[in-house]
Amino acid sequence: MTTTPVRAKDIVIHTNTASLPPGAPLPFGEIISARFDGANQIVASVVMFDGQRADMRLKRWAFGWSRGWDAMPGGDISLENGAWQRVFRDDLFEGFAA
Questions:
Q1: DSSP per-residue string spanning 71-87
Q2: How does strand 76-80 pair with strand 64-71?
Q3: Residue 1 falls within a domain, yes or no?
Q4: pTM
Q5: Per-residue pLDDT averaged across 65-82, rounded?
Q6: Residue 3 within any structural domain of the chain
Q7: Which residue range(s) make up the domain with 60?
Q8: CA nearest 16: which of 42, 37, 50?
Q9: Into how many domains does the chain fold?
Q10: Which pLDDT score, from 0 to 100, does residue 88 have?
Q11: What are the angstrom distances between the C-alpha of 37 and each of 8, 21, 24, 41, 77?
Q12: Is residue 61 part of a domain?
């Protein structure tokens, strides 16, 4: 039986796409690098929607892959009306009493 090798880059794309609403764009436009870090992690560097570089880490678990950001210069991101934008922490808590 022959198995098809799975590329780290393909897993990064699939995992990010699966976490978005249908038809939503990925938050990054380019994957600079994606590599396995052992058998259960992938480390990837990407160019975000606004041209800034970010680093993500995917970890394998029982139901697939989870994603987290190791570094995201420029601030947090949010998908608003079908487009990605930067969201700053002060904006996240607007309207909440301290």
A1: E-TT-EEEEETTEEEEE
A2: unpaired
A3: no
A4: 0.82
A5: 93
A6: no
A7: 8-92
A8: 42
A9: 1
A10: 78
A11: 10, 28, 28, 5, 25
A12: yes
Please give the mean pLDDT across all residues of the chain. Answer: 89
State the Cα–Cα distance between residues 50 and 46, nearest whole angstrom.
11
Q: Distances in Å between the alpha carbon of 61 and those of 23, 31, 37, 67, 85?
A: 26, 23, 14, 11, 29
First to last CA, the chain: 61
Which two three-digit tokens encode residue 98? 């301290």
At 14, the amino acid letter reads H
pLDDT digits (tens, 9 = 90+) for 17-47: 999 999 999 999 999 999 999 999 999 999 9
Query: What is the distance between the alpha carbons of residues 80 and 94, in angstroms, rounded to a whole number?
Result: 16
Nearest Cα to 56, choosing from 22, 21, 86, 28?
Answer: 28
| pLDDT at position 90 over 90 | no
User: How many Cα atoms within 13 Å fall on the side-chain side of residue 14?
Assistant: 9
Q: Which amino acid is at 95?
A: G
The answer to whether 49 and 84 have CB atoms below 8 angstroms apart is: yes
Question: Would residue 55 count as lying in a domain?
Answer: yes
CB 39 within 8 A of CB 18: no
Would you state the structure tokens that stand for residue 35, as one six-digit string? 């590599």
